[in-house]
Structures
1.
Amino acid sequence: MFFNLPTLLTWARIVAIPLIIGVFYVDGLSLAQKNLAATVMFVAFALTDWADGYLARKLNQTSAFGAFLDPVADKFLVCASLLVLVHLDRADVFVALIIIGREIAISSLREWMAIIGATKSVAVHMLGKLKTTVQMVAIPFLLYDGRVLGLIDTRVWGTWLIWLAAVLTVWSMVYYLQKALPEIRARAR
């Protein structure tokens, strides 16, 4: 279904993108206030990724459109946030290129595999889910860019985590390409 509760939550992640970016352009707020607002919004909208899947299954409202839109919304949210972080000099452009480039490559691979009827060879794997989880923790740490409880320097932790996400990104891309390689070889002949 195009408009049910789970799909509306997915749409909310897409709508969140200009809000998260826009908060950094609001006059009258300190940088710390902007950081906090962007962090809270990112976390709230990232949680909709879990909620929409849970509700779709619980309410029996799964759909092909929802299955398509969910990863698109995740990728938009992550990529837009990474670009903001690069702009704010909180994430390395190389990390952003790795993560965004992988998303484009694997999305294209999945599309091609769907066309040739081999989607099972590039089905979502736990490694991809781990990569997404690490990204979804690293990004709010970097958006917040401060200390939590006076102890945790979120920029340091976020930087380590985003680099770990980049490593997992490459690892998962290699995994998906290896799984698709037999089909790629068969079609190249």
2.
Amino acid sequence: MKIAYARVSTQDQYLDRQLEALEKYGYDKLITEKITGTKKDREGLNNLLDVVRDGDTVIVESISRLGRKTLDILNIVEELGNMGVTFVSLKENMDTSTPTGKAMFQMMCVIAELERNMIAERVKEGLQSAKKRGKQLGRPKMDNDKVSVAMRMYDSGDYSIKEIIEQVGISQGKLYKEINKRKLKADHN
């Protein structure tokens, strides 16, 4: 049996591109999920591993659909191989039923991890460079005067939360955070 597996990381992403490629290749069963590839325990992946049998073929649009970490991907493909299951990745044009496909798969995993590490390194360097140039990273600090005014309005009891956040320009979350912070402080005294 040919079993296709498609995954995207978030609910906002679409499987369409993967599904088109998988349909063109052909399959008997399709398993899809929307969850990050960094998690090892995924319902769809677990389902895939439960249904495959010796002689089956698992097809993915790209090896990155199996996971984010090279070791995780290699472990999944090794587990499939131990079960007598062939792995096919369409984007990388590899098929583990061949020696060349097995070797190519291992090389592609190493290259994919190298690429992710290089991207992470560039991001880290960019953040360090921005800090050196005096850029403020992260969320902007809330003006203490705004917080103070918002808390006085809250204490007066004359304003609703909605009125306070609209008039002062503070977020509802920030206002509640300050209210809770003061409550905690009062409880500890």
3.
Amino acid sequence: MKYLKLLLWPFSLLYGGIMLLRNYLYDTGMLRSTRFSLPVIAVGNLTVGGTGKTPHVEYLLRLLKGYPTATLSRGYKRKSKGFVLADHTASAATLGDEPFQYHRDFRGVTVAVSEDRVAGIAKLLKLKPELGVVVLDDAMQHRPVQPSLNILLTDYTRPFYKDLVLPAGILREPRQGANRADIVVVSKCPPALKLEEEQAIRQQISRYSRADAPVFFSSFSYGEPVPIGSAGSLSKRIILMTGIANAAPLVRYLEEQHYIIHRHLAFADHHHYTQKDLQLLQESLNEDQVESLSILTTRKDAVKLQEGELLEITHQLPLFYIPVEVAFLKNGEQFDAFVLQHVASF
């Protein structure tokens, strides 16, 4: 792996240089960046892969429930094009995984997708002139929009300051991009993070972030499993099925809760489930021949398993999903106050 990174290093230098130039052009105004008259909160990261953006966006949507709120995403891997406003016909295919999840779980929030976020926000304001705030999902590198508040997430298990630019690493842009962040959140932390380690992380982040950007630490809080399949109680013996970027925190939690994972069907992030996948799941259930074996998945996967032709099969399986929410290790009220004061200032 070390030698592979050395071979890829020249390409990382080239890509990193291109991204530095792009950021310079936006920072100096040579490339246009649009700012809007209402608060626009961007949630993003510097890396490819899961840093926990979806639970943090959901945290914001709950925090902002007192405001007419919209969330706008690109709609990664959706089958539609252009601007799409979620309605009763929406699906994961038309919106993408995460936007469809927001649509299902936050009925009071306007959900839309658009590759062009500037045009998307303008369209939202035309359709919903009463909007009070827009939350942009995965928009750290979408420089045509100038957010009023930029929230950078970095994974505790692979912080941006230890990584390299693509393709030698998984950074979408050089580490210096952290200086655009108004808030930095270190996600997926162990609940018992030691003060010495927290201080060391803060010091590393401060090498790249602005001096006035506060740093918070969050972890995941898992709820009681929710049944979406055939009736029955959840067994401690499970087949785990996931289509997310990083299932390690969930696996670790389940093992801590004394679940026995007989099999883990780990699909790629944003996996589009088919009847064949559920047939494979049924075969796995039969092959294991373990009494009272249940199937556990994530909320992100569950919303796709409850669509169209899959619904009939899903209802026949002993299938549950486990909810997840963000929990700040400490000073969560300061994070809330920072965001709410920012929104109230408009």
